[in-house]
Amino acid sequence: MTSYFRGFGLVMISAIIIALSLTSVKAGIKKEQDNSKEIVMKKLAKAASDGEFCFGHQDSYFYGKNWVRGEADKTAPWRSDIKDVCGDFPAVLGCDLGGIELGLSANLDGVQFDLMREAIKAHHKMGGIVTLSWHQRNPLTNGTSWDSAQDSVIRYILPGHPGHVKYLKWLDKIADYIIELKDDNGNLIPLIFRPYHEHTEKWFWWGVQDSTPDDYKQMWRMTYKYLISKGLTNLIWAYSPNLGTDKDGYMRNYPGDDYVDILGYDGYQFGEGAARDTYLKAIKSDMAMLKELGIKHNKLIAVTETGYEAIPDKDWWTKTLMNGVKGSGICYLLVWRNAHNQKRHYYAPFPGEHSAEDFLKFYDLPETLFLNDLK
Length: 375
Ligand code: BMA
What we know:
Blueprint: H1 10-27, H2 30-35, H3 37-49, E1 53-58, E2 63-64, E3 67-68, H4 81-86, E4 92-96, H5 113-125, E5 129-133, H6 153-157, H7 164-178, E6 191-194, H8 213-229, E7 235-239, H9 247-251, E8 262-269, H10 274-297, E9 300-308, H11 316-325, E10 332-335, H12 356-364, E11 368-369, H13 371-374
Parallel strand pairs: 1-4, 1-10, 1-11, 4-5, 5-6, 6-7, 7-8, 8-9, 9-10
Antiparallel strand pairs: 2-3
Helix pairs in contact: 1-3, 10-11, 11-12
The protein binds beta-D-mannopyranose (BMA).
Beta-D-mannopyranose (BMA) binds at residues 96, 108-109, 135, 336-337.
């Protein structure tokens, strides 16, 4: 791949790579060197320093437009709409743990956790990177993540409050699942963990309406420390507010450099014309802001979720998305899922879809990394 490095962060990325090496040396454990989160961090840092970014797709291996991977496909080769279009898998596989806190066998979108485990192992084995989001239930009401009418839900789960013990049990369920995500040598698989996302908006119970910044920070640090205490040293922690905040808004709930590895953000396009301009303007200015914050805090930056539902613009990949992120210094971006049971809820192309041709051009760009590029 041609290097398109644009000079902004050679120093920063080198600093990250050196810092990561020192961490590994300090740890002094060969096993960790083989398979620690630092390996993935270095992969991501290298992509960013080369002016490239990893392409990600949510739920890519589980279903796509008009297909679902079922029990009978257990031994069949992995499939993905991305692969069906360009012959390669995404570099980053996104999965969601929502529902695991209740001990359910499938997540909120019907993906069996057993299947997810197999996919995570396989994707990692092929050299890919995995990210986990968590659309968990509302611990106060047991409603969905979107049950955001009450306030103080965050306070409810903090130490000394009535929901704390219940919430730790939820975290136990996460820990029990993640601790089993091991490679063939028994090493934990590194995972980008992205809890409590889009908190700068009001749609989730952990959103901006719920609590003070300090409550949010406490919740994040509590989660971090608890999962580390359970042995989950393999997590790469991604912080992802929603697009369109200024620097103060972005940093308002930031739990601190010790608790975050990647500065991300989520942002979608919601229409043509003025809506496209708004998205492009926001993505460009937010990327410039993230670049600055990344340098200041010595963190990698990423577009942790993006997309344009049903991709109404057939040239969206090269003319809008690429236009927005070109030269930004991100290490990855991820588009959302291709629901198999909703007509227009898809964010990636599939064979015959009208943006598939443009996606092939996007795939061929020197900046975009897919699974084969990580092998
Ligand atoms: C949303 C939609 C929902 C889904 C949720 C969690 O953006 O895709 O249908 O349940 O993400 O994956």
